[in-house]
Design goal:
- By secondary structure, the protein is of the alpha/beta class.
- The protein has one domain: Rossmann fold, CATH 3.40.50.
- The protein is built from eleven helices and seven strands.
- A seven-stranded mixed beta sheet has the order 3-2-1-4-5-7-6.
- The radius of gyration is 18 Å and the shape is globular.
- The chain starts with 8 loop residues before the first helix and ends with a strand.
Length: 281
C-alpha cells in the first residue's frame, strides 16, 4: 500500500502535528481530539516524512495563526465560519467560540464520514454543520456559496492546507466565487513561495503526493498580491518562520535567520510560507 493513498490522508498527517503541540507543557493551543483523529495511519505518514518532522513548527504555526485570525474575525462580528477542505480540524470542539456561531465544514464524503465516526459522542461548542462536497464541482460549490451567503451576515472563510494542491487558474476561480458573495468578508489561508514549492516537491513528500493524485501546484510568484485581481486584499500576512521564532518553536539551528528583515510579499526562490487574512476589496 502506498504511504499516501489520496489527498484525505494529508488530513490525518496534519492532525499528528496538532497532537504533538497539544502534548507540550507550553502548548500554544490544545486539541485533545487530534491524536484520536490522526489514528495509526497519520502516525505512519508523519514518521516517514522526515523533512516535515524536522519542520513541525511550520504545521504548528499554521494552526496557531489561523486560530488568531478566527478570534480576530469573531471580534469583528463574524457570525459564520465556512471551512473549505476542513479535513480533521476540531476547532468547533476546542476553541472558545460563541454558542450562536454557525460553523460549516466542507470536505469529501469519505473523510467527513470518518470524522463523524471518530467524533461520535463529542459535543461541538457552536452550531456545526457538515457538507459532503467535492470542491472541484464548480456548479455545486457556487450553489453552496450562494446559499450560505444569503443566510449569513458576515462570513470568515477558511481554506487551510487547500490552495497548494490547486492550479493558479483554479485558485483564481475559487477566489472569484468567494468574492461574489457580499457577506463573505474575510478569507484565511496559507500559501508558499515558488522556492518552497520546489523544495517540497523534492524533499517534502512531493513524489508520494503526486502518485496519490495530489501534487503540489500553487505558489504565486507575486505572493499574497496574487489575489488582488480576484477581489481580495491583505488585511494581515504573517510569515510562519517569523511566528515560529516569536513563539520559540524554531529550532536553534534556524534561529539566526530569524533576525533577517521580515518580508511577506513576493519571494521568488526564497523558501517562504505565510498565513494570510484577506478581506473583500
Amino acid at each position: 500500500m502506498p504511504l499516501i493513498r489520496n489527498i484525505s490522508d494529508t488530513a490525518r498527517w496534519a492532525a499528528v502535528f496538532r497532537a504533538q503541540e497539544t502534548e507540550r507543557k507550553d502548548a500554544l493551543f490544545r486539541d485533545p481530539l487530534a491524536r484520536k483523529l490522526a489514528g495509526d495511519r497519520g502516525e505512519q505518514i508523519a514518521a516517514a516524512m522526515k523533512m516535515h518532522q524536522r519542520n513541525a513548527w511550520s504545521w504548528v504555526m499554521r494552526t496557531y495563526l489561523v486560530d488568531q485570525y478566527i478570534a480576530r474575525g469573531l471580534g469583528a462580528g463574524v457570525d459564520t465560519i465556512l471551512n473549505l477542505a476542513a479535513g480533521l480540524d476540531a476547532r468547533p470542539y476546542r476553541m472558545e467560540i460563541p454558542r450562536t456561531l454557525r460553523w460549516i465544514e466542507v470536505d469529501l464524503p469519505e473523510l467527513l464520514a470518518y470524522k463523524e465516526e471518530i467524533l461520535a459522542g463529542e459535543t461541538p461548542r457552536c452550531a456545526l454543520q457538515r457538507v459532503a462536497l467535492d470542491l472541484s464541482d464548480v456548479a455545486k460549490r457556487r450553489a453552496l456559496f450562494a446559499q450560505i451567503g444569503a443566510s449569513a451576515r458576515k462570513v470568515l472563510v477558511l481554506s487551510e492546507g487547500l490552495l497548494v494542491y490547486l492550479s493558479a487558474d483554479d485558485v483564481g476561480e475559487l477566489a472569484t466565487d468567494l468574492a461574489r458573495q457580499p457577506s463573505f468578508h474575510y478569507w484565511a489561508f496559507d500559501i508558499v513561495s515558488p522556492g518552497l514549492l520546489e523544495m517540497l516537491r523534492r524533499q517534502g513528500g512531493g513524489a508520494e503526493l503526486a502518485q496519490a493524485g495530489a501534487p503540489f501546484k500553487f505558489a504565486p510568484a507575486e505572493g499574497p498580491a496574487f489575489f488582488a485581481r480576484y477581489g481580495w486584499r491583505p488585511a494581515d500576512v504573517q510569515s510562519t518562520f517569523k511566528a515560529a521564532a516569536r513563539t520559540r518553536r524554531l529550532p536553534w539551528s534556524l534561529r539566526i535567520f530569524s533576525f533577517f528583515p521580515e518580508s511577506n510579499g513576493a519571494q521568488g526562490k526564497r523558501p517562504w510560507s505565510g498565513i494570510c487574512l484577506m478581506e473583500r476589496a
